[in-house]
Specification:
Elements: H1 3-22, H2 35-38, E1 40-41, H3 46-52, E2 58-59, H4 72-90, H5 100-109, E3 122-125, H6 127-139, E4 145-150, H7 154-162, E5 166-173, E6 176-177, H8 179-191, E7 196-201, H9 217-227, E8 231-235, E9 259-264, E10 276-279, H10 282-296, H11 301-313, H12 316-341, E11 346-347, E12 355-359, H13 366-375, E13 378-379, E14 381-382, E15 395-399, H14 405-429, E16 446-447
Parallel strand pairs: 1-16, 2-13, 4-5, 4-7, 7-8, 8-9
Antiparallel strand pairs: 3-10, 5-6, 9-10, 11-12, 12-15, 14-15
């Protein structure tokens, strides 16, 4: 062997040994990652839904809006006109806070919720999911507490865990978050010296529970958090999608200085534009804008100005009403199918939004049952995805927004055959093993959301 070849092999061996010392055989950089990166993991159902997304599978899982009713010809002509007339603006960088003309239109979009927000207090984000990330970045230190409803949105839980926060759940019922439970939880945490940074809540047509925070509870929640100096992060992607009319006033209206209000065009218009926003008190908004600039320089100018033009030149609120009617028809089809095929279960009856929260009979485990459901060509999201502490095995989230009424009935029928077979096994062998909550206190790494769990 030549001295050159020997030196090359020796050097290669040293690099390999160094890599092995630094990480693993599969990832030599493993020990170099930040702690928050090691806390990330792929959703436990993502690989399963690679199968579930086949056309023969009826998916009752994903919260994808049905955009088939969009005025596509109008949008195509509008986009072409924008590029012809404003191409040098629409295809250029923008500001970190977002385009002023869109922020002015967002102020109008929030009015049905009773929110009176000035454009200067709005930061445009890449969907409301990025707003959650920015809020977590500027507020959360490792070990801080975030309060969230039980259950809560999986994408928010993953973000909070990525910033190494401790999520503490607060009970909810058919009327939403329970104010007495909220205050008791805050007081208990204060007693042990825990820093509660904010309450995260989805008051309208909750994801996944489908319920609304009642009008009489909203000022109570605002007052409790103000009394204990706890910020409220009010996430409202579904507020305009009530089946029976305009939404009730946002929590923000009862304490504008204590609420960061999040909105999105993903559910009421089109998710492909990836445009959301945060309305916040002036000092908070300034920090959100700085964090936004650090993260991505500026939100998409094309998406922002396209949505602004749509809002200015099209009857967007009539389009929302058409969405309401479509989702109401599908929600009613879901309720009818549940009554027909799943009388052994109980469920929420949403008055808007996308979701129904189903409780399984005693002894059944939604998480364990999911692969068998997919084998039976139907998919849902296990309730375990919506808790930070291992709860939820006795629940599943069913989404009615995307399938047709006929598909919804057939999907629930298929699901009934799976549940019936599971009940027969329970009757034959006894109650299935249930995880004790103490076994699951460390809920592990944060899950990244996917289109199936939105």
């Amino acid at each position: 062997m030549s001295s050159t070849e020997e030196t090359r092999r020796s050097g290669h061996a040293k690099v390999s040994n160094a890599a092995a010392a630094a990480g693993t055989r599969l990832d030599p950089w493993y020990n170099t990652y930040a702690d928050r990166a090691l806390g990330m993991k792929q959703s436990e159902v993502r690989s399963l839904f690679a199968v579930a997304n086949r056309p023969e599978v009826i998916s009752l899982a994903g919260g994808m809006p049905n955009i088939s009713g969009l005025p596509l010809d109008f949008l195509a002509e509008m986009s072409a006109r924008l590029i012809r007339e404003r191409g040098t603006k629409i295809l250029q960088y923008g500001g970190g806070q977002g385009e002023e003309e869109l922020r002015e239109m967002i102020s109008e979009v929030m009015r049905p919720d009773g929110v009176r927000g000035h454009p200067d207090d709005i930061t445009v984000t890449t969907g409301s999911q990025q707003a959650l990330d920015l809020i977590s970045e500027i507020f959360l230190n490792p070990g801080d507490v975030v309060l969230a409803e039980a259950p809560s949105y999986v994408g928010a839980l993953g973000t909070f865990r990525a910033y190494q926060a401790d999520v503490v759940h607060v009970p909810m019922d058919q009327d939403g978050l329970v104010p007495d439970e909220l205050e008791q939880t805050i007081m208990r945490l204060e007693t042990v010296g825990k820093s509660v940074k904010f309450l995260y809540t989805i008051p309208n047509f909750h994801n996944p529970a489908g319920v609304c925070l009642s009008i009489d509870r909203r000022p109570q929640v605002a007052a409790i958090c103000a009394r204990h100096h706890v910020l409220i992060v009010e996430d409202n992607p579904y507020g305009l999608l009530g089946f029976d009319g305009d939404p009730i006033p946002a929590i923000q209206t009862f304490n504008p200085d204590g609420v960061v209000y999040l909105g999105s065009f993903s559910k009421t218009f089109a998710p492909g534009y990836r445009v959301g926003w945060a309305l916040s008190p002036a000092a908070v908004n300034a920090r959100l804008t700085l964090a936004n600039e650090n993260a991505l320089l500026c939100p998409t100018t094309f998406g922002q100005l396209s949505i602004a033009e749509y809002l200015k030149t099209y009857d967007w609120y009539q389009q929302v009403k058409e969405y309401r009617a479509m989702y109401q028809e599908r929600g009613e089809a879901m309720q009818k199918a549940l009554k027909k095929y799943l009388p052994m279960c109980s469920w929420t009856k949403p008055e808007g939004g996308f979701y129904t929260w189903v409780k399984l009979p005693e002894g059944l485990d939604a998480h364990a049952m999911l692969p068998r459901a997919v084998t039976n060509l139907v998919a849902y999201v296990s309730g375990t995805a919506f808790y930070a502490d291992g709860q939820g095995r006795d629940h599943m989230r069913l989404s009615f927004c995307y399938p047709t009424p006929e598909q919804l009935e057939e999907g629930v029928r298929r699901l009934s055959t799976v549940i019936t077979a599971e009940l027969e096994l329970v009757d034959m062998f006894g109650i299935a093993h249930r995880h004790d909550v103490h076994e699951l206190e460390d809920s592990g790494p944060a899950e990244a959301p996917s289109p199936n769990t939105l």
